[in-house]
Known about the structure:
Layout: E1 11-15, H1 17-20, E2 23-26, E3 29-33, H2 37-44, E4 53-55, E5 75-77, E6 79-81, H3 87-92, H4 94-97, E7 104-107, H5 119-135, E8 139-142, H6 158-175, E9 180-182, H7 186-189, H8 212-227, E10 260-264, E11 268-273, E12 285-294, E13 300-308, E14 316-321, E15 338-343, E16 347-348, E17 357-364, E18 371-383
Parallel strand pairs: 1-6, 1-7, 3-14, 7-8, 8-9
Antiparallel strand pairs: 2-3, 4-5, 10-18, 11-17, 12-15, 12-16, 12-18, 13-14, 13-17
Helix pairs in contact: 2-8, 5-6
Amino acid sequence: xxxxxxxxxxxxxxxxxxxxxxxxxxxxxxxxxxxxxxxxxxxxxxxxxxxxxxxxxxxxxxxxxxxxxxxxxxxxxxxxxxxxxxxxxxxxxxxxxxxxxxxxxxxxxxxxxxxxxxxxxxxxxxxxxxxxxxxxxxxxxxxxxxxxxxxxxxxxxxxxxxxxxxxxxxxxxxxxxxxxxxxxxxxxxxxxxxxxxxxxxxxxxxxxxxxxxxxxxxxxxxxxxxxxxxxxxxxxxxxxxxxxxxxxxxxxxxxxxxxxxxxxxxxxxxxxxxxxxxxxxxxxxxxxxxxxxxxxxxxxxxxxxxxxxxxxxxxxxxxxxxxxxxxxxxxxxxxxxxxxxxxxxxxxxxxxxxxxxxxxxxxxxxxxxxxxxxxxxxxxxxxxxxxxx
Length: 389
């Protein structure tokens, strides 16, 4: 088997809710989620890493979240996560997902099996999935079983012991198979001073899944891990004369203003970006990306890039949608300084002549001090259709 250099622009992720929750959609929108570790890896890599998805309301058999018949994830692309699935259910989806175009895939499987399957069964199923992907010529990165809080797995219980054993097996498997590696997301997730190996305080919303700050920590670690593995993508240049022209440059930038300085001094503010944006034509797919520099601030609940089609039945595409609990509570963003590139999923323009609009939505805790956020290299442009046969 040859060892290839995977493309950083087409990274696939496969697994359970821990994977699916990187993206969120409904009939009118699609977004990367601020509770998504891959979402943050994309941002903190300054846009060099990509796990592309696009809006899709279809419901393929075996892909229904939490095994709810008729329920859609509302997206297709390279996020192959389906919430609630056991490892054997993930294995059954391999034939369909292997029709997609990708070189490298991160694999999460087994977390939903821990209370019902033996450690050997879980390890064997994980190995079979990895072997099938390797046989298809993919570079496979195994994700260990993610540690949980004691409210989910009892202290010193069998689940915790099985997880340690399975994770050792994964490391041994990777060491013995070319093109197979391990990314230990527990290294950023587990508090080393916690007696039972629980996640850091504030990193999870329920002891199992990621909150925003937990996703940020894992995404930051992943961005650095993949940077050392993948060819460095060229820097994103944005010549001022690279402007949309329907005849000579139909893939040019649609915006008229390339940078902005925003001041947010109240709970929820939307800042218009890009000036007047040209309309490239009904049926065009467009996406937005910009560089962002966010200072340390204890009161940030959301920083979202939102591309809006203002047509009557137009949709929205967003990067880093805030994460809200069922009761409406918003989980805070990192309180440290961070910068990167925010990119929306692609958006298909519906019939209409009104130009699309781009916003930076900033959500703050009540009574917070104002915050200045710098935006640069704003880029909204037509892209090829992401829909693949």
